[in-house]
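Hi support team,

I'm opening this ticket because the web form for multi-chain structure prediction keeps timing out on my end. I have pasted the exact lines I submitted so you can reproduce it. The total is 857 residues across two entries, so I didn't expect it to be a heavy job. Is there a limit I'm missing, or should I split the entries? Thanks in advance, R.K.
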Amino acid sequence: MAEVKVKKETNLSDPVEVENRIKELCHQFPQGITDQVIQNDMPHLEPQQRAMAINKLLSLGQLDLLRNSAGLLYRLKDSQSTSKMKGSDNQEKLVYQIIEDAGNKGIWSRDIRFKSNLPLTEINKILKNLESKKLIKAVKSVAASKKKVYMLYNLQPDRSVTGGAWYSDQDFESEFVEVLNQQCFKFLQSKAEAARDNKQSPMVQRNSSFATSHEVWKYICELGISKVDLSMDDIETILNTLIYDGKVEMTVIAAKEGTVGSVDGQMKLYRGVNTIIQPTGLVKTPCGLCPVFDDCHEGGEISPSNCIYMSEWLDF
Amino acid sequence: MTAQEVRLCGLLLREHFGEVVEKVGTHLLKCGAQNLRTIIHETGLSVDLVKKSLCVLVQHGASTFSSGRKGPGSPTEYHASCDRILRILRYPRYIYTAKTLYGDTGELIIEELLQRGHTTMSSTVKTVADRLTQNMAEGLTMDYSEVSSTFSKLVETHFLQRCPPLPRVGNKDSSAPSETPAIPGTPAAPVNTAPPTPESFPECYKVPSVTLIGRGKRQLASEDGEEQRSAKRTHGDEGIYWQVNFERFHLHFRDQTIISAVANKLDQTSSEIVRTMLRMSEVTTSPMATCTKPLSANEIFRSLPPSYNILRPILDQYLTLLVDDPMEFVGKAGESGGGMFVVNLHRALANLARATLESVVQERFGSRSARIFRLLLRKRHLEQKQVEDFAMIPAKEAKDMLYTLLSQNLVQLQEIPKTPDYAPSRTFYLYTVNQLPTARMLLQSCYKTVANLVERRLFETKESKRLLEKSQRIEAILASLQVSGAEPEQLTEVEEMITAPEKQQLDTLRLHINKLDSAENQVDETIFLLESYINSTNASS
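Hello R.K., no limit was hit. The queue was backed up. Here is the completed structure from your submission:
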């Protein structure tokens, strides 16, 4: 006896049936369905019934209402998130949605207010609520220390908010930067010394005293002084500070694509250098470093004749 | 002429020539060109004193005179030159350079000329020979011809030059310059606004044929009669006066600084190559040129000192390295002859001046402020946030350092408004460093520093004047006793007149004065660098 498949005629006047049909359609088109699609599927459905069904699904939180250039879109909501929002009312859902949209850059409470048009007290209450439910978290921005941005709980804050590798808990880690600075410098200096002791032809000497940024990066990683992973760009910022200290110079050479460490067909080479002059004569005198230099004149309170800095310096 | 420069000139004049000359000199510096009557009236000194001071100043080239402003008939006006007086600070360096290049003879020649201002060759040679003879062992004397040959060598390398003959202006011819009527018809023609430079005369570096035969004489009382007779002999070079050519010394100092900078940055061999290049261009390059004349690699190879026998390919490699260096000391000007190379003088001076500024900031404010300063020099204009990011300094400290540098005027602020009303919230504020104005400012600080050091030295001397006089008297007594042959007990008795703490005081005083002196010389090196840079920039722009 063959099973006869009986197609159950959907009773279209039953609202539940309508809702189920709509949900099935949403499953079929995961990116969302328009009103037009629903109408095509159920042509004899009246607009009123359709609207009622859609509203019911929306209020149950099973459907998402979106808007695109063509019109309104209905999308099936993720069942997991539906369970999360149980017990929250519409306003909270709205705020949650706004925060979700902000991605990993986070959003400021004032911006939430603008987008949702809710009064400030309401916003604060909702935010506290959501935070206690562990759905969102507040992250202090490194740019303005008083500003707090909100983002979803499980998201990693973006680099611009936390400041990247140099900031830990909103504090600029100057000792860390200093240590890296000195390590890089020592590496380049020892390389230059080794090249100088080599005593080969000058071209070879100079070329061997160069180190690519990739080499320096590898050396620092192997040294293991950093708890955070540093990228090559981070190392290049450190090397730039060494250039501004006048201890290192940089050249850019063209490199074959594919050689290790080349970026866009170029490689940056760094080399330790010495300063071209000794500390200048002016700073060897007390006047060169005097904090009250502008107040000093003959016959005044501060004058060369009774200068205490000079007396100390002369007796040194 | 800034106030600091005038103050320093006054102190230098007082130390070297006395208070009267100082008064006249500073008056001329402050008030510009003036004629004799006005000077007498405004300084309140007597006519004689003013005339003598002007003589002294003109003799040393610190003052020039020219026809009055109202035309050829008006009284001559005297004009003091600040630069020339500031050169007095550099005399020790000139003498030391002459010593390294030409030995003791050269040193004494330069010293004589610096002391006397303008002299003839014969008198210089005689005096120097006498001085050298005094310091030599018994029985030896210095021949005039040796001194003459050193003198000629100094003239050939342009370290000495003839004083320019001045056109006859009325009857007032106060000492120095020669009497040879140089330009015919000058008194009738209008006077040039600028005094003729020594180099505009064709015979500037020509050594006159002088008959100088003799040897240096020791200073003995019995020689008096003979000396008077020999002084009346003429030597064929009357009226030809010589002076020290400061510009040539300055070029020499500049070359030295460039060579030592190359040695610091690269290595010894590179600096030798640069030294050779500079030596070859000594006479072909004008003082204000931005770079030397192109030299081919072949020429450089031939002119290298024989002790440095490096191979030709190695030389080429060194030259390529010098050209590639970011400091740009040497540039390539063409490919003929194995490569034509020039030394970029202006750029080298700019780099040296920049290094000086950076070192001042570093010593005064610390290495992090120096980092910010170098960053701004490189990147020209930056916002405060960008400064913090590039320099990797915490925001609060960076702000503090920038504001300190701004208050000292080493860093400037440039406002770029977004709206026509310069509302602070809608304006960009960019920090920037301008090298030339900062160098000028630092130069003025150097002048003030040197003036402070000189004043302190005078003060210390004045404090211990009594002690110094006492020690001088005792030394005189000792010397006279020794000459007249006294017993040791008398000598010790006299020596004991100075007590031990006084002796210690004298020693500390001597130490202080030496320290202050050497500090003046060190600051003068900075002054030289900054002045060269500023002059070179003015000449090239």
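A quick check on our side: Chain B touches chain A through 62 residues (CB under 8 Å). Let us know if the file doesn't open in your viewer.
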